[in-house]
Write a structure and sequence with these properties.
The protein is α/β, with parallel strands linked by helices. Helices cover 33% and strands 19% of the residues. The chain is built from ten helices and twelve strands. The longest helix is centred in the first third of the chain and has 19 residues, at 9-27. The radius of gyration is 22 Å and the shape is globular. The N and C termini lie far apart (65 Å).
Length: 328
């Protein structure tokens, strides 16, 4: 036979804060669970056969910005949204995130098809699918159509340039990480030549490729923030140079940087148009390989979590982009 010893007053007092918290959870009316990425179906004709996920912070008011975040090869929508820091910043700053997801039926490595002619033209394929996701999101959350941004890593970065070129009226800005200029595979004759060597084009030729994607469009064009690792052997650094040439030409800016300094110890440049507006901003992450720069932690400038192609280099690309776009 065993005896049960009565709890001492000291033990009861130690449990009191936990009991109060549990009672608050039970008695608080309308208490909702924390938001998490959710799949959305029926967002349009979806000619590119993509899946749509989204992250909407609890209690997000109408009229807030929307960020479209495109994952890299072998990644998925939810993992990239969290790992890159975009969902963390959505909670911090108050915006929603659209997270397109590639399907292996379209690409065995789950890469967005930034190099396929049928997927990079306005009104066709994956490009049209992402555009339909934007329209659905703006309608569902009553988002601010003048503050929609698109960003992505690697193949997602290549698709970001595609969206900026094919649907410039939908995006105020784009953020490209280890990505490629619009039309690069066609200019180089192969996506692999584009990735590993680059394409021989003048700034005007690069700009003409963008202008041809949206004939007759008079602007404004999305501004660009780009990140590139200097030790990236999957997408060579020449691609950020070509992105700069392409988008400064589209914006009518010259090829000389107006600002050359360092941010978090890394070379940083800003290119301004004739009116003094920053239209291209670049970060060259010294020694970084192929991946998304993150800076895990709870500090004001920190975001993201380290993982495959999510590289802790003490600067969070999503934070820097959001700052440039006025989200924070």
């Amino acid at each position: 036979m065993t005896q049960t010893r009565a709890a001492s007053p000291r033990h009861v007092l130690a449990l009191l804060p936990l009991l109060v918290a549990l009672i608050a959870v039970v008695l608080t009316p309308g208490r909702a669970a924390a938001a998490s990425p959710q799949e959305v179906t029926g967002f349009g004709s979806n000619p590119g056969a993509l899946r749509m996920f989204r992250y909407v912070p609890d209690g997000l008011p109408a009229g807030r910005p929307v960020v479209v975040a495109l994952h890299g090869c072998t990644q998925n929508a939810s993992g990239y949204g969290t790992g890159s820091g975009w969902t963390q910043l959505a909670d911090r700053w108050g915006f929603s995130v659209v997270l397109p997801q590639q399907q292996t039926a379209n690409n065995a490595s789950s890469c967005f098809n930034w190099f396929q002619s049928g997927d990079i033209a306005r009104g066709q394929g994956e490009t049209a699918s992402v555009a339909q996701m934007v329209d659905r999101q703006l309608a569902d959350v009553s988002g601010d159509a003048s503050r929609v941004y698109v960003t992505g890593l690697s193949a997602g970065g290549g698709m970001t340039a595609v969206m900026m070129a094919a649907y410039p009226e939908k995006f105020a800005a784009g953020g490209i990480v280890a990505g490629l200029p619009y039309g690069c595979a066609q200019a180089a004759g192969s996506p692999y030549v584009c990735m590993y060597v680059g394409a021989t084009q003048t700034p005007r030729q690069w700009g003409d490729r963008v202008r041809a994607a949206r004939p007759g469009y008079a602007g404004p064009w999305p501004v660009l923030v780009a990140f590139q690792g200097t030790a990236d052997y999957t997408v060579k650094p020449v691609n950020m140079t070509d992105l700069t040439r392409q988008w400064t030409d589209v914006q009518g800016a010259d090829q000389a940087a107006d600002v050359s300094d360092t941010v978090a110890g890394y070379p940083h440049q800003v290119f301004r148009d004739a009116g003094g507006r920053a239209v291209v901003e670049t970060y060259s992450v010294t020694g970084m390989g192929h991946g998304q720069p993150v800076d895990p932690g709870s500090g004001a400038e920190q975001c993201g979590s380290a993982g495959a192609y999510l590289l802790d280099v003490k600067v969070c690309a999503a934070y820097r982009m959001g700052l440039a776009w006025g989200l924070g």
